[in-house]
# Entry
Amino acid sequence: MLQPDRYFDPDPQARAIALDLYAGIKDLPLVCPHGHVDPALFADPDYRFGNPTDLILRPDHYLLRMLYSQGIPYERLLGAGDPREPWRIFASHFHLFLATPSGMWLVHSLETVFGVTEKLGAGTADAIYDHIEAQLALPTHSPRALFERFNVAVLSTTDAATDTLAQHRAIHASGWNGRIIPTFRPDGVVNLQAANWRGNIENLSKVSRIDVGDFASFIRALEQRRADFKSLGATATDSGVFSPAAEPLSLQETESIFSRALKGNIAADDASRFTRHMLFELARMSADDGLVMQLHPGSLRGYNSEIISKFGPDRGFDIPVATEFTRSLHPLLERFGNHPNFSLILFTLDETTYSRELAPLAGAYPSVKLGPPWWFYDSWNGIRRFFDQVMETAGVFNTAGFNDDTRAFTSIPARHDLWRRASTNWLAGLVARHMIDQSDAEMLAREMAVGLAQRAYRL
# Structure
């Protein structure tokens, strides 16, 4: 099913150059500096994945949202009962994913990870299910075995500020040499409107061993947790915010807002003002401790309240919104943008900002790098648009390479492979037009596959 020259330009000259460039990087190690794979997969050497439905379909909001958009109720996909039934529904609707990144990733994963070489459909659903289930029972398909088979150099997870990091400690204690590192995500305690915020603060007190009773102790607790994360190999933080706006408040204002929040009676604009201030504080902490700061703004989460109330978050109803960066980030960059120890990686769900705002910012500030196309744009065409809109202004070396940003561990090689094909295809076009020569293209291909990410994330 997988053709060796898939995705490449149909022009014979460009395709030949792309295939040559790709051959030089396709087997390089996978550097995965940002993602959402559960570290519990690797803490127990005997861990095994569940059935194909629970591994492939149910955790994947890309798949769920597409099926729901065609009128298939979530009850049929997520309900209790025989896991074969949702799989059969998925298989019989696999045509929905043709020409989508989900379809490309799935075909790659099914063939290279599980040896499935026939099309998934209504007639093959049960046989493929049985085949994958049998593969998952084998020692060769344990998470640790696949990690080594995939040639993963490093895998970063995303962990709440209140996480005890017990799974990471278990991985370290086991003596296994796979490099799994945490990433500090403070959203649950920084966002005053987060679910169970008060409970999150109590958990922060427990895990940091600092009684959080005011804003000053809150900051100390966050700093302690960051140090704990660093001790287990963390090199980065991540904030999933609605807006990248950062603006410092006075100590009196922050104490007042935090005090109201502890009492459960915040004012209408307290949450947004507090988040803006905390982005400023988190930047200050990154300048102090060297953890790379990532910002993932621009998603209106939980858009379909009925689905969220019935099935919880991450079910496909987080929708992009227009986002402004230049004015929003100015106070933060005025204070920290020139700091030699500060590093900021920016992502966007608003492609209109690529050439207008993000590329000029990254092309000027030594502290700013652009993350790869994210979420809805982590696709063949999304990556191509990114290259065309960003690289001329920012330059390749002001981007952060690739990260897979996935919960689906078995799809990681597929995602990196698509990026490597897209980047070598883009570079081949430059060579064919005599804009760069072959040796420069080979160097850039290696950087875009591995080197940029290693340096941007201080790995």
The domain at 12-45+151-456 is CATH 3.20.20.140 (TIM Barrel). The chain has 21 helices and eleven strands. Residues 412-432 form the longest helix (21 residues). The CA atoms of residues 369 and 442 lie 22 Å apart.
